[in-house]
Amino acid sequence: MSNIDFNNIVNYNNKPEVIMDEMRMYFQQILPRIEQAALVKNSRSPLRYDPHYAISSKFKQTLRKWKTMPDEQAMELSAEALYELYMEFLDVITEINITYSYAPTKVEFCAYCCISIEAYNRLLTEGDIKVRQQMSDIDSDLIDSIERSTEVGVSNKFTEVRLTSKGTGHSLKRITPLDDALDTMNETLKDMELERRLAAIVKPDQKKIGNEENNS
Fold first, then answer.
1. CA atoms 17, 20, 25, 28: torsion sign
2. Separation between Cα atoms, residue 195 and residue 59, nearest integer Å
3. How far is 172 from 163, CA to CA, in rounded Å?
4. Euclidean distance between CA atoms 210 and 130, whole angstroms
5. Are 89 and 53 within 8 A, CB to CB?
6. What is the reported pLDDT for 211?
7. What is the average per-residue pLDDT within 89-110?
8. For residue 26, which of 2, 67, 60 has the smallest C-alpha distance?
9. 121 close to 169: Cβ distance less than 8 angstroms
């Protein structure tokens, strides 16, 4: 058993290095499978390897080595401490992105900080003005990362999310195949409605001229 106190988030200064070392070792193990998955990316086989899901699972498992602190203890974190934690978290994400394009999530940031989602939301809305400002910046960054990942196609069926309003801030909703089908249907209906409206505003004389040109 390791003698490292994973719960000592304040004094354990090597946490980013430990996480990055573990992720590097994991990448060495799965790199051949990542390369193979890229070759069969368009395969419809349900057994195909999904590197993003595998990496996400390993990252979560590594982050959870440190247990979540009580919410009241989390509420004592200062703006400076939150900033330092976020910069360390970005260092880890940057290291991961050297090997594989990966967008960080709010859940992963909370796991890194050893705080719950509830504590994150409370810091965002109930902290002092400096804490609220720092958390607002972090929240905006995380939302932007998810939005950009979906725009450039980084995320897949396991990581596709939709931003939804939920009180203050945002929440994430997993997109299912049904959601995709409904989105496609809605876009088609919008296009049909637009065509109908455009047709309705065409002047009768223009229609007549068009018909005459077709008949000539």
1. negative
2. 48
3. 5
4. 65
5. no
6. 56
7. 93
8. 60
9. yes
Q: Which amino acid is at 115?
A: I
pLDDT tens, position by position, 119-158: 999 999 999 999 999 999 999 999 998 888 776 554 433 3
How many degrees, rounded to 5, is the angle at CA 88 between CA 87 and CA 89?
90
pLDDT of residue 157: 35
Nearest to 82, CA basis, from 115, 52, 50: 115
Q: Which residue has the higher pLDDT, 216 or 103?
A: 103
Q: Where are the domains of the chain?
A: 15-174, 178-215
Nearest CA-CA partner of 67 in 105, 102, 114 = 114
Query: Within the chain, where are the H helices?
Result: 15-39, 51-63, 71-74, 79-99, 106-113, 117-126, 129-151, 177-200, 204-215
Tokens of 195: 């065509």
